[in-house]
Amino acid sequence: xxxxxxxxxxxxxxxxxxxxxxxxxxxxxxxxxxxxxxxxxxxxxxxxxxxxxxxxxxxxxxxxxxxxxxxxxxxxxxxxxxxxx
Length: 85
Prior knowledge:
Helix content is about 45%, strand content about 0%.
C-alpha cells in the first residue's frame, strides 16, 4: 500500500487587532498585609489566652464563646486577605 502524503498545518497567526492594550491601574493596597496578619495574631492570641487561663480571660462572661470570638478574628483576617493584589 502506498503511504499517503502528510499535510503540514499552517502555524497559527492571530488576526491583527485594531485595539491597543489598555493599562490597568492598580491602587495601592499596602494596608492589607499588616491588617490581615494583625487579625490572625489577635485571633490566635485570644484563643491561646482563653485556654492558658482556663477560661478566666479574655472575657469571663463569654465562657466558651471566647473561642468563637477568636475564630471570628481569624475569619476576618481571611476576609481582608481577599483584597490583596
